[in-house]
Amino acid sequence: MAKQMAYNEETQKAVRRVWDEFKSETGTSQAKAAKALGINQSALSQYLRGEIPLNTDFLAKFAKLTKSDLDSLGITPATVGAMPLELRYTLSGRRLRDTSALVPSPTSFEGCFGIVVDYDDFALPRDSIMIVDETTTIKEYDSVILVSRDDRMINGTIRYTPDGWEVLEPHARGARRFVVRGDDTIYRLGGAFLPERHGRTFEQKPARG
Prior knowledge:
Blueprint: H1 9-26, H2 30-37, H3 41-49, H4 56-66, E1 82-90, E2 100-104, E3 112-116, E4 129-133, E5 143-147, E6 153-161, E7 164-171, E8 174-179, E9 185-193
Parallel strand pairs: 1-3
Antiparallel strand pairs: 1-2, 3-4, 4-9, 5-6, 5-9, 6-7, 7-8
Helix pairs in contact: 2-3
Organism: Shewanella pealeana (strain ATCC 700345 / ANG-SQ1)
Domain HTH cro/C1-type: 29-73
Protein name: Transcriptional regulator, XRE family
């Protein structure tokens, strides 16, 4: 899954301040807010008191609920400019562990959701997030995600043939063809977020004269 960051005491204070202001302005109870966040009231209370460490999944949902800017929650500079993105599927079809993530972006992800790459033998690294746009018109030769009726994710190029539409999933030895059926769902792939990785630094050697 996408990395869950730890947040400091300043963020905790900011979350409490935003909650107090939101509660005062809207009259929202903890029980109602907890339901909207997808957690129970006890968990929300523990988040607000600092008994459960804050994480990106909670902060993304909390910011959306309270209509707060992420930087108003005191999020560290590394995440300034990040926007909450709903996570809807894993590429393998396995159950998600988180339902949202903070992804660097100058604009909101309205009309978009993410698919988490949760295995290694794929073109993108494990823990990458494929960003899907639900609102964009799909055209022939677009890169798409086909969601089958059993929630299998197929990433490929869509094209039209005399027999109808199909998605070509690339492989080392050619491509696998999937006929688009009436109960399949097709989404246009809009981009991807790659996880930060730390390794050795490559040093370019001077070109020989």
